[in-house]
Amino acid sequence: MTRLDPHSYCDSDQPRTRRLDLALDVDFARQVLVGRATLDLGDPSSGPLDLDTKDLAIRSARTDDGRAVRFVLGDEEPILGRRLRLDLPAGTRQVEIAYETAPDAVALQWLAPEQTEGKRHPFLFSQCQSIHARTMLPCQDTPLVRVPYRAEVTIPEGLAAVMSAGPSGQRAGPRPGTRTWVFEMPQAIPSYLLALAVGDLAAKDLSHRARVWAEPETVAAAAWEFAGVEAMIQAAERLFGPYEWDRYDMLVLPPSFPYGGMENPRMTFLTPTLLAGDRSLVDVVAHELAHSWTGNLVTNATMEHFWLNEGFTVWAERRLVEALHGSEATALAWAIGQKALDESVARFGADSPLTKLRTDLAGVDPDEAFSSIPYEKGARLVSLLEQTVGRERFDRFVHAYIARFRFTSITTEEFLPFLEAELPGVAAKVGIRDWLYGVGMPANAPVFRSDALTTLTALAEGFAGGARPSPEQITAWNPTQMLIYLQHLPRALSAGDCAWLDANLALTPRGNHEILVEWLVIAAGSDYAPVFARVRDVLSRVGRMKYLRPLYAALGRQPRTRALAREIFAGARPGYHALSRRVIESVLGKYDG
Ligand code: BES
Ligand code: ZN
Predict the structure, then answer these.
(1) pLDDT at 593 (0 to 100)
(2) Cα dihedral angle (377, 333, 371, 508), rounded to 10 degrees?
(3) How many CA atoms lie within 13 Å of 384's alpha carbon, on the beta-carbon side?
(4) Which of 9, 149, 192, 375 is catalytic?
(5) DSSP letter string, 90-140
């Protein structure tokens, strides 16, 4: 027996799933999926087949010709969940498992109508990355295994369903008041890219192959914000090759969605906090779109190689930003990334093994290991390779990389020989082993400079000494420049300084959550009471972990704001996603007093 992924019971000596057929009945009243998962093994197989499950009730298992399959659920492991061992009778080609999810399945958030924009209908969405697909269905829950899938999803009439797949028709459901939506995903994808959302959804076309879905109340705003997506797809195709997934649709979720975006193929999931009204946050769309090449075509074999997904994608996202908005905007994006990187290195400690790109995650929950390091350290390595060989050669390398590994899942150790074959000597020249297997940041990390960046940081760092931006400077700033200015301000300010900033930069009423949250981190961390109501409003509505973590951490700095944080959390907790809840519990656990 060999397990190739520390986060899965999948055994490389056993058959691999070749195709998946899902039938899901979405029960909003009980907050469960009643499901049937049919795993097609291709060749006739027999003997043990180990699947991943977590919080699933397994009802039965049988072969395609109706023979019962014996099964046993192992003990609960804290990170992995329970192994489901099937004992396949000789000649099994397909096994059908009937099961039910738990109301608190981590992959699924069930929202009450009050938690939606329209307040009239419930909402359900999934988030399977990294290892939560096993709470939604029994499967080989490792990116090493890729499957095409088909799904039939039964939902209440009047609601709509979307998946990381193409739509393939609808019909009347098995009971009055239900409809069954059919989906087909012809391309092989890893389990973490399986995705489903159900709610009161409307759609607006943005081009012949791109459409945005959202609640009816937000779909117009979403269509405006993401109107440039077709231009983005075309720019990405020029950079990385043809878009292979047919359609690029997007779904704007209710505000509790715990991430900024998730690259579910054919249906990117997005936080509604991107709807800033000024198109300033579309770099998240650039990022999720770029995953269509780096991540969804070429996939990390396990979470220990997550940098291959995210490092390459941040690099690709910045190339896209450069193509669309120029090099000045790109330098600012790298600067914002640098800030996130520094904070992650500081949070773990520069000698922490979690600062390596190639990590060892046996016994480690990938959600706990999550940070900006695979993203920003990874992107800096890719950029260093690019700078070392020059853009033209590197672009040819990226095309070759995608062509060689498309629709496969690879390790760092498979990447390295390919790099050596295509760009001989470059790995040694940049000291790639230090980057991959060493902790902290190597000394040869690229630094991205720009005039605007120098001016903004100098002005912000001079704040304590009395430097202030002029009204003309402030009006000339775009949202990204405003954010960089705020990021470089001192963390603890007097009430007078806070009042000056709020009056002159008009911060508290902002709808751009990057700026708003950066401001609230400074102001709430400085115990500045006039922002407390806005802090409560953001923390009670928004579940994006990127915002919750620093805001709750800033509230921990003073006794009064610590009490405020505990009180807000107690009220907001039931509305948070399980993942957000976990992050905040750990932040609050680090408060003293
Ligand atoms: N795939 C990630 C989100 C993710 C990572 C979910 C790991 C679960 C586990 C997605 O592509 C992502 O990186 N989103 C970022 C966007 C940003 C880097 C532009 C986010 O959510 O903030
Ligand atoms: Zn990503």
Answers:
(1) 66
(2) 160
(3) 22
(4) 375
(5) EEEEEEEEEEE--TT-TTEEEE-GGGSSSSSS-EEEE--TTTTGGGTS-B-
Nearest CA to ligand 1 atom 10: 262
pLDDT at 184: 98
The tens digit of pLDDT for each residue in 559-572 reads 999 999 999 999 99
Residue with tokens 């009056």, as numbered in its chain: 503
pTM to 2 decimal places: 0.99
Nearest atom in ligand 1 to 262's CA: 10
Ligand 1 atom at minimum distance from 309 CA: 1
Residue nearest to atom 8 of ligand 1 (CA): 129
Q: Where are the alpha helices (DSSP H) in 267-305?
A: 283-290
Q: Is residue 211 within 6 Å of ligand 1 at its C-beta?
A: no
Give yes or no: 288 in active site.
yes
Instruction: State whether the beta carbon of 315 lies less than 6 angstroms from ligand 1.
Output: no
- DSSP per-residue codes, 24-50: EEEETTTTEEEEEEEEEEEEEEEEEEE
318 lines ligand 1 (CB under 6 A): no
Which residues in the chain show pLDDT less than 70?
Answer: 593
Q: How far is CA 280 from CA 185, 224, 230, 269, in A?
A: 32, 12, 17, 18
Ligand nearest to the CA of 264: 1
CA 184 distance to own-chain centroid: 23
